[in-house]
Amino acid sequence: MNKKGQTMFYGISLALVIIVLALALSPALKEQVDTAMNVTVGDTIGMDCSNSSVDNFTKAGCTVVDFSMFYFVGGLILIAGGVAVAKVIF
Asked: Of 4, 3, 17, which Cα lies nearest the Cα of 80?
C-alpha cells in the first residue's frame, strides 16, 4: 500500500472518530439544553422558555440555546467531512 492509500485510510478513520464523538456527546448536550430552557427549580436556573410572557431578550436567548445543539453536532460532522475530503484530495 502506498502512502496515499494509508493517508486516505487514516483520514476516513479520523472522520469516523469525530462523527462518533459528536453523536456520543449529543445526549449530554441535549440534557444541558433542556435544563437551560426549563423553569427555575431549586438550584437549577432556567430561562422558562415555555412561558409566553417572557421579554424579547429571554426569547432570543432561548432561540440561541435551542440552536446550539444543531450547531455543535453539525459543526463536528462538518469538520469530520472536511478531514475526510482533505485526506482524499491532498
From this structure: 17
